């Protein structure tokens, strides 16, 4: 036996229930791992069926097909002479478990069920699986570790790393030297460093080698799994995968010296100390990960992990998600109503970033991306080289003008479309709006007016909503028939562009052009989007964005004043986007109701607002939020990026019919306001 081991972990772009494609990508990763000299290959969580199967986990077909794929893997010559660690659901005594299946040379060594399930944020594992709590009396399915000729290997599964009682602690104390973690960890802005720090911490305390595998890509819903597979030893990262890419298979390998682990532990884990832990059942494996002739084999050295800025994450994550959605949807491109504002311009820039990534992937020799793009444009000889040219083939933008639209926004939209290369259309909606209002007038005998023309608030809002909803109808009409009119096959996916703050307050029209097929920015805050556009200005040299950033956000649904915009978003909402971002985080992340939020904000906003003003803002927000919460039940599926997103589908489960008076809660706030200055608000909530 030697002392150096070569190990492989990977990121796979698996797709829920795509058993053929998932099997192909698993075999490809094993082939690459073996070619790199690895004797152990780790894959992502539930990689055989895909992590996002949701209620399909209830179906016996899902279990059946997983075992059929496992049979193919066991019999494949590619899986010989390497320990393969794959993920799939397994049923035992009519109970479903999220499991790892470890096998070698056509023999299953261990079925390791997950013990600590993820049940927060977007995760709902308790809905489909049970945590393993059975005694280790079943021959194959148990909580155990592998003992090879030269080392000992123990498994963790995803959330077990995040848990305060992570298994790797006791496993390390029991002599396990190699820890593995198969994960399906989705992207959130500013989250990547959490994973890296957890992996480093896992082996800093008591030494060891840690392999982290993660899914990547869009596997069928709002989440984007962002790779970042890595290998660490004794608190140092020695090999890392990329966070965002269009590669379906990425394998990360490292050669490490087991004696480095033993030396590290010899100093830090004193052998005479007694630790309370249960010894792990060891499954003996007649196999060695090392080679006696490895003395000249170089080992991997520590690397510094360079994290993306939030602006880069917005540019890359949603772009990769859009690409997966587009190529797997069977459509031929995107259509976006481009208003010339920050939000729709952000969606447009993300599509352009996608085109940049596609061109780079083709240049780097990605055969799958080239095959996909040729299918999308219906040209078997096409080879994308210029992102602007590709954008013109895949992306249609349209400015939908009304009598309330300004020349400034029209010109800003036109200039941005020209710089990214989209196929840009100018559409006037006044004829359609007047037609709809004419129908109403004939039936009801009255014609509504804007507020500036003497109309009521109800009339004013209805007239704005008609314009917004006409744009949605026209967007879908052009998406379905635009390519048909040009003699081209296929249809277009409609992109939305409502940000997370507008969704939170309901500051959009239900079933307007925010109602789309998918929305790449629905989980991103307005403040982050502005910083993202500044990044695009510099990184992509999109100078048109400068005037867009300088303009006040506006819906342009009310009449102009002397040709200029008189309506602004922040005035309509009654608070700034910066304030909304703070309030959104308190509501979701800090779990604050009206009273708790008030108690926090009187301190953090004390330099700019009196307690009475804070109370007014909190009440105004919760009234808007509760009145408009019903809109979240039909909101366009959005890329999940922000930890305070109000997505009603799975992430933020709330009622949609509220008592909007909040009489008890607001009464508590009023009582505190009556007590005096902010210094009096020292309330401890237990």
TrEMBL record:
Keywords linked to the UniProt accession: ATP-binding, Ligase, NAD, Nucleotide-binding
ATP-binding recorded as keyword: yes
Gene Ontology terms: cellular component: cytoplasm
UniProt-listed Pfam families: CN_hydrolase (PF00795), NAD_synthase (PF02540)
Biochemical pathway: Cofactor biosynthesis; NAD(+) biosynthesis; NAD(+) from deamido-NAD(+) (L-Gln route): step 1/1
MF GO annotations: ATP binding; glutaminase activity; NAD+ synthase (glutamine-hydrolyzing) activity
One GO BP: NAD+ biosynthetic process
Coiled coil start-end: none
InterPro entries: C-N_Hydrolase, C-N_Hydrolase_sf, Gln-dep_NAD_synthase, NAD/GMP_synthase, NAD_synthase, Rossmann-like_a/b/a_fold
EC number: 6.3.5.1
Catalysed conversion reaction: deamido-NAD(+) + L-glutamine + ATP + H2O = L-glutamate + AMP + diphosphate + NAD(+) + H(+)
The CN hydrolase domain, residue ranges: 5-258
Matching PANTHER family: GLUTAMINE-DEPENDENT NAD(+) SYNTHETASE, NH 3 /GLUTAMINE-DEPENDENT NAD + SYNTHETASE
Family in the record: In the C-terminal section; belongs to the NAD synthetase family.
Assembly notes: Homohexamer.
Protein name: Glutamine-dependent NAD(+) synthetase
Organism: Astyanax mexicanus (Blind cave fish)
Gene: nadsyn1
